[in-house]
Amino acid sequence: MEPAVSELFGGIPGRGAGAGPIAAAGGSGGGGSSARGPGRLSSSAAPRNPSSRGRGSVRLSSSGRGPSSGSGSSALGPPQKNKSAAAAAAVAAKSGHKKSKGRPRGRNNPPFLPPEAEEGNIEYKLKLVNPSQYRFEHLVTQMKWRLQEGRGEAVYQIGVEDNGLLVGLSEEELRASLKTLRRMAEKVGADITILRERNVEYDLDSPRRIAEVLIRKVPDDQQFLDLRVAVLGNVDSGKSTLLGVLTQGELDNGRGRARLNLFRHLHEIQSGRTSSISFEILGFNSKGEVVNYSDSRTAEVICESASKMITFIDLAGHHKYLKTTIFGLTSYCPDFAMLVVSANTGIAGTTREHLGLAMALKVPFYIVISKADLCTKATIDRTVKQLEMVLKQPGCNKVPLLVASSDDAVMAAQQFAQSPSITPIFTLSSVSGVNLDLLKVFLNVLPPLTNSKEQEELMQQLTEFQVDEIYSVPDVGTVVGGTLYSGICREGEQLVVGPTDNGKFLPLKVCSIQRNRSACRVLRAGQAATLALGNFDRALLRKGMVMVSLEMHPTVSSLFESEIVLLFHAKTFRKGFQVTVHVGNVRQTAIVELIHGKEELRTGEKAVVRFRFIKHPEYLKVGAKLLFREGVTKGIGHVTKVICDLKC
After folding, report:
1. Most exposed: 65, 319, 360, 598, by fewest CB within 10 Å?
2. pLDDT in tens, 199-211
3. Are strands 336-342 and 225-233 parallel, antiparallel or unpaired?
């Protein structure tokens, strides 16, 4: 962590937007990036050496000729098992998109992908022409494994050998292979969508083609695949309007009509500013078609029709509501974040701070430049360059990818989920609708971050549900909303909730469960839902509580230690200082009781600090991410020790 981090969080006076380094807070170690512009995503060939898998930066040419690999590196960023293979596959599938004038590819220089990995959801197949029955059954079993690895999604590269060589197929062989792939998908109850078909260009008399195919099957124990996306950005950048257009299916009129259905309070409608956390859903069916309120009247219909669901968490942009935004990021555990930047204002207000929060909490983010209809191309280019400058600063080390076509969107989605240094950038308008379809393609292809093995491990643990919202519903009683952190929760299950002000846990019963406003009998780890608790007294509940299994015997404490980095503080941080601490869904004021080995801290310094909650004990776990703030003072870290006061 470097002192330069401070510029995202209140900054060093006198620096212009985009100048100076930014946070290393949770930044990826993706290596230095090119000094060139973000450029258009490449249609040039993939790396030719499958063994070149060193950690390096992605260099993108501003001329649109494509990525050039850095010294000793793949042109696709840091490889991570099958992750680099997927990113390479995305670029290689684009090879042949444009013919290279005057530079024919020689026979001795064919395009390569990294070799196929045994793990992950990406499968290479040279051809699938008339397989025997035994071979067909083996292929079906293999497809089931890839779908399981991708939690319901798999990508097949047809015309590619297992060692990564892009051989390609004739038109007849490709059609026969795709026909076999459809039979395989029907056998396992999945649907296929052809993402791209491209020519392979290297001195062959007959044209050869490869195809990239998305296989999707909702797991038997789930209603749909679910991804959560937090929406960040400065006030008036067009966040709520963009969500309204995506989820309602109607363009905005330029005066904010599309966002009206998202607001929860009268003062939000009157001011046009979001002050609370709201949720909106966008569905995709098994063929990749959008399912939203334009053709579905209710959320229940969307849930029934969709095989993949994107849940947008609309957060506040105004600095006055920063604590609400931080709570949304720490409590709701988003898979990704969407940073919305207005094309006409660029990086302004809380944009820099929201970017820093996403990095500090290690939430992968992509950027949407909105209001393109209001600006000239020169203004948009200036905003893109401004973002590029910030993303490439030391400590951030992001590589911007400007998405300009459907192929770019597919490639960006695969690279984004697999390489921590990639940051896709979209330029669109909620009024004219330009490039909105590219964002939808991106969201449709975007894979989940966790694999099936990690999901199963979480489900085998004891039940732990984090309480984020509390409601009183007529004829239903007390209802709590939140996220199931681990285990499985069923209707009728007996749990305990706490801690109360005196550190105790109270027994209760889960009467019913709803996800995305539709009934659900079983809730699994990582899923967000609302639970009806019947006549349980609402006054006994508060945000920050947890509902856990009776067997867990949870420990609570007012005293804990954390290893922190002070991101910004005007003077010195010392014993007795009070800050607001965010740990998951916990948000409470704490006092600094001890700084190990030091008398005081200054901006950019690290230390192990002992905190004490001033009001009541909380349920904490070692390793949990921590973020604290007080005015312009901000810092991040993780819990290293919980000094138990009470035990349930």
Report:
1. 319
2. 887 656 678 899 9
3. parallel
